[in-house]
Write a sequence for this structure.
């Protein structure tokens, strides 16, 4: 079974600085997807960024980028120019690439605080 | 385009009762999944429906069940509620096989 581990329960960063959230995963599959979701106090889980395992290029979405190390099974999220609105729980998630698979396996989450 | 809609937003029940939660996916999305979120266990997969058929099921007791209607709307039912069923229940839908899941705001279920 696949597992996802986020080793940092909490992190804080000064506004406008850069922060990196860590995620490691365990799988025997070669085809899969990785995601970072953000959950603010409003509760809605919002997709931040996704990465297909077969792509070597790291995904980027505006101020958010990932460092995907397939051999090390590592998938960290970098947030540049942190903003107050980035404060939330961040979850790393894995999904198998098997046709029809929809189940997401989540890490325990990292609570990110932005200090003004 | 409207997002995933879950109703009700909050529910309070007592032990032994049953409850039904509703989820309307994004228009055009035929796949719906349910997750349970608790402080202790985190986010856990309950089940997934596609075209009215359950395709995958997580490791939950038979008290947890669901269904999907022809318009892709889904319901989940929990019978004989226990205190440990108190959680945020999240529904997600997606457009296709390789598309990401989009989540609703969840239903907060409290068991007294």
């Amino acid at each position: 079974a696949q597992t996802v581990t986020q080793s940092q329960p909490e992190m804080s960063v000064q506004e406008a600085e850069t922060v990196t959230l860590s995620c490691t995963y365990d799988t025997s599959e070669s085809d899969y997807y990785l995601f970072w979701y953000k959950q603010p106090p409003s509760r809605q889980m919002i997709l931040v960024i996704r990465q297909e395992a077969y792509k070597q290029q790291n995904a980027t979405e505006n101020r958010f980028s990932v460092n995907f190390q397939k051999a090390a099974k590592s998938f960290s999220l970098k947030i540049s120019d942190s903003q107050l609105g980035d404060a939330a729980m961040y979850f790393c998630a894995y999904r198998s690439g098997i046709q029809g698979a929809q189940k997401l396996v989540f890490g325990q989450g990292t609570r990110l605080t932005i200090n003004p | 385009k409207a997002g995933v809609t879950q109703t009700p937003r909050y529910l309070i029940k007592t032990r032994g009762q049953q409850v039904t939660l509703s989820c309307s996916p994004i228009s055009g999305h035929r796949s719906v999944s349910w997750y349970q979120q608790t402080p202790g266990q985190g986010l856990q997969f309950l089940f997934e429906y596609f075209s009215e058929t359950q395709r995958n099921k997580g490791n939950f007791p038979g008290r947890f069940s669901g269904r999907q209607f022809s318009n892709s709307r889904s319901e989940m039912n929990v019978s004989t509620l226990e205190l440990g069923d108190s959680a945020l229940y999240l529904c997600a839908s997606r457009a296709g096989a390789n598309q990401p899941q989009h989540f609703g705001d969840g239903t907060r279920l409290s068991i007294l």
Observations:
- The interface with chain A takes residues 31, 33, 35, 42-43, 45, 48, 50, 55-56, 58, 88, 90, 92, 94, 97-98, 100-106, 108 of chain B (CB under 8 Å).
